[in-house]
Design brief:
mainly alpha, Tetracycline Repressor, domain 2
Length: about 190
């Protein structure tokens, strides 16, 4: 008698894979389409797997925004703080890290979602405040103050978060040269 073969075990999807899949779905389809059924279908699992990792949709939304904040804000702040360079060097490290890692790639999707969901907007605001405080500290350390400080921080943050959403024609400068020019633009005192 031939022994019965055990069925191949189904893959277990951990919480992080659910969140990573949700980030990509959010970027492709927007917050309104971010549903348990669609995520489960995308992962090839049942809705029960979702509820194994998240109490409810609110827990999932909170977890997704925390995951984005930790991976695309908190870890970046830690990397820059560990660089121990001058304020200009730290701002340069921040700029390069965002660029080379594509850390702005989900910002537009979260902001679009926040425009349609008050609760999401409140959570995104917390991330924005954290980013603002950090970047403001870098520009203060560079010696800027008053209205000039405020404007530099706002423009830098908007550019860093949304530059990929606005079409700009390609120029002949290499990516590294463009980063260097941008850094010089933001760090040079107004004349």
């Amino acid at each position: 008698m031939k022994a019965r073969e055990k069925p191949a075990p189904q893959p277990r999807y951990d919480r992080e894979l659910w969140l990573e899949t949700a980030l990509n779905m959010l970027a492709r389809e927007g917050g309104a389409r971010l549903r348990v059924e669609g995520l489960a279908r995308s992962l090839g699992v049942t809705k029960g797997s979702f509820y194994h990792h998240f109490r409810d949709r609110q827990d999932f939304v909170n977890s997704l925004i925390s995951y984005w904040s930790e991976g695309f804000t908190d870890s970046v702040i830690a990397v820059v703080n560990d660089s121990h360079g001058s304020p200009s060097d730290r701002l340069w490290a921040l700029t390069r890290h965002i660029e080379t890692e594509g850390l702005d790639r989900f910002d537009n999707a979260f902001r679009s979602w926040a425009a349609q969901d008050v609760m999401v907007a409140e959570l995104i605001r917390e991330v924005d405040l954290k980013r603002h405080a950090f970047v403001r500290g870098l520009f203060e350390d560079l010696g800027f103050s008053g209205a000039e400080l405020d404007m530099r921080v706002k423009v830098w943050l908007v550019f860093a978060s949304a530059r990929r959403t606005v079409y700009t024609p390609e120029n002949q400068a290499s990516a590294n040269t463009e980063l260097e020019l941008r850094h010089a633009f933001f760090t040079q005192p107004a004349t």
